[in-house]
Amino acid sequence: MLPLRNQSQPNPLELFQIWLNLPAVDKMCDPSFTMLWAEQVPKIRRIDTDGRRVEVVVIAGAFDDTSPLNPPSNSWASKDSAEVAVWHLHLDPGTSLELPPTRSAETIRTLYVFDGDGVQIDETHLGCDTGSVLRSNDITMLQSSGGADCLVLQGRPIGEPVVQQGPFVMNDEAGLRQTFIDYQRTGFGGWPWPVDGPVHDADRKRFAVHPNGFVEEPN
Questions:
Q1: From CA 135, how far away is CA 218, in angstroms rounded?
Q2: Where is the Pirin C-terminal domain (predicted)?
Q3: Are 37 and 96 within one domain?
Q4: CB of 46 closer than 8 Å to CB of 139
């Protein structure tokens, strides 16, 4: 899943694990996933006259006129009214970026600074490893004197109870217990490999195997 690209030196990895819940009506839908290959994810790049760069990686949720790749059909992100967004923002030192407002004041928008000097929002400075909930339905101006990388997570709450244990998320304790029973009985349909931790050949290029057996490789 995470190959050792360098065989004789460290392989640093920066990873965000983002969980997106499903409403109860969709929790038992057929499993599926969508691969968002890095080179296919839309990016907005703006470079000023001094060569300073501002970039928005549009992972989910449109940013201005730039739309993301399609999410799985049953994902909460596939509902336009959910206003789900995942954006990676990069600001070179001395640049600024305006975040567009959401349609609904109920949509929650959180910004997390994970690298660099931080950003200024009005009179508030957010340093590295700092997060803040923003007023989503207003235009937000970010300024960075020293440069920053930020993650924006956004969405309208589903508004249903959440019960979670391990990787399982349901709406009540009964549903959670049944999920454990289903997993213990079938492994959610069966594990397709002969071992619990399969290892692929070192020279195997990127690929994904979908539930219907289709093998997807980036161009």
A1: 37
A2: 86-189
A3: yes
A4: no
Nearest 5 degrees, angle CA 142-CA 148-CA 152?
A: 60
Same domain, 57 and 127: yes
* 40-84 pLDDT, tens digit each: 999 999 999 999 999 999 999 999 999 999 999 999 999 999 999
Please count the structural domains in the chain: 2
* Alpha-carbon span 137 to 107, nearest angstrom: 8
- Say what the pLDDT of residue 1 is: 61
CA distance 68 to 79: 13
Residue 125 in any domain: the answer is: yes
pTM of the model: 0.91
Taking residue 94's Cβ as centre, other Cβ atoms within 10 Å add up to: 13
